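Dear support,

I submitted the protein below through the web form. The confirmation email said the job was done, but the results page showed an empty box. After a refresh the structure appeared. I'm attaching both so you can tell me whether what I see now is the final result or a partial one.
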Amino acid sequence: MDIPGHGEGYSELKGIPFIPSVVPEAPLITYPSRTTRKGIFTETENNPIEGSRLTKSHYYCYPVKAGGFLACIYFHRDLMRHGITLCNLF
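What the results page shows now:
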């Protein structure tokens, strides 16, 4: 599936398995290991995805509608519970 918004610089993300929709049914109980963050994000001038070598079979992607925007959520299989928990926000 060709995902909208994958322009130049994001070709490394093509081929990651795409989940067309996530529909949680009550009761959905997940236990993310942490809800706090430490440190700060620093701005970079380059795209960290360019030139990366991802094992595409280790990642998943699903779409979310955030306001008027379509966003693609990518997560590693070891962080599945965090990726699924995130769907509750949208």
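Response: this is the final, complete result; the empty box was a page-load delay. Residues 13 and 56 are 8 Å apart (CA to CA).
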